[in-house]
Design brief:
alpha+beta; three-stranded antiparallel β-sheet; 9 strands; 30% helix; globular
Length: 155
């Protein structure tokens, strides 16, 4: 789990909404303090995806916070995809619902086909998914003090 100091630094540049999913908890909010309060309930043993949003597509609202979920498959994205926003959905949600989730349903969460297609689609983006408490990362993540980050711009 990132330290509070790290979370605060990340929040200063990614302040358009907050969300996380762990093996036992999930929460999305526009309120950073409420986000932190719920995140503090996550145990050290839990796999967790944390996302702090910097809006590029779609409005700044709770429904556009990551991670997105469909039948227990969670998805978060950092980057910009060449997708036109529709009905105030983010590029990330459109990609997840239209391509990622159907891929997982057809081939399986941990299949070689899913792995290969997700890595190819990531490009310069970063994708994080969770299903049944297991996290998969796609793209060039960096590890710092045992935590994976999609970027280190907050340093």
């Amino acid at each position: 789990m990132p330290t509070l100091d790290t979370l605060n630094k990340v929040q200063r540049i990614n302040h358009h909404g907050y969300g996380f999913v762990s093996s036992k908890h999930r929460f999305k909010s526009m309120n950073y303090q409420r986000f932190l309060a719920h995140l503090s309930e996550v145990g050290i043993e839990e796999e967790c995806i944390i996302h702090m949003r910097l809006a590029t597509h779609g409005s700044k609202c709770r429904k556009n916070c990551h991670p997105f979920v469909e039948n227990g498959v969670y998805f978060a994205h950092n980057g910009v995809l060449p997708i036109q926003s529709v009905n105030d959905m983010t590029d990330s949600e459109i990609f997840f619902r239209g391509q990622v989730y159907p891929l997982v349903m057809k081939y399986g969460y941990e299949s070689k086909v899913t792995e290969s297609m997700m890595m190819a689609a990531a490009g310069s983006s970063k994708f994080a998914m969770m299903y049944k408490g297991k996290v998969k990362l796609y793209g060039d993540y960096m590890k710092l003090n045992g935590v994976y980050y999609s970027n280190l711009r907050w340093l």
